[in-house]
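Listing S7. Sequence submitted for prediction.
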Amino acid sequence: MSAHEKLDDQARELAALYAMRTLKEEARASYEAHLEVCLACRSEVDAMRGIVDQLAFPAAAEPGSDVQDRRIGPVHRPLGVEPRAQRPSFSFVRAQEKRWTATEILGVEVRILFTDPEGDRMTKLVRMGPGVSYPTHRHAGPEECYVVSGDLLVGDVALRAGDYQRAEEGTVHAVQSTREGCLLFIVSSMGDEAIKSRNA
């Protein structure tokens, strides 16, 4: 792999996956060799690591008593996680360890990286296929979303690879959609509330 003069979506996605430590061992070794000669990718990885580190360690939030009753479904269903006091100091997720899981929303898949039921936080990758929409929902806590690749339309705001959005607790996301498909890195509450359309 030669050095890039300008990064495309694929190069940005590889940099993001490397920064999130999700590349398989062979791919990681190959990419590290590429980083030795590519300043553009090295800069992108450094920028992404800063974002990933900030998103991976949010301040703990106190969930409301009704959080468990307001789940969107499989996208927000917690996994069996040890209590905070018993967790190891470091967590690693290898690319081959976690599989993509289909959600209730056709064309949307999720890969859960970490859940913290006590802090009501979840870290995940979300993959949306071309032309797919994600329904309106209310945030039970802050939501941070980084577009790893592709495009995401949030109301009238068009986001591309490298763009970031944050929604505060209690805010409502209208329908979000993608024309080309996208890969998103999201840190959010585990109890976001689906809002049914009046036409449903």
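Caption to Listing S7: primary sequence and predicted structure tokens for the chain studied. The mean pLDDT is 81. The chain is about 20% helix and 30% strand.
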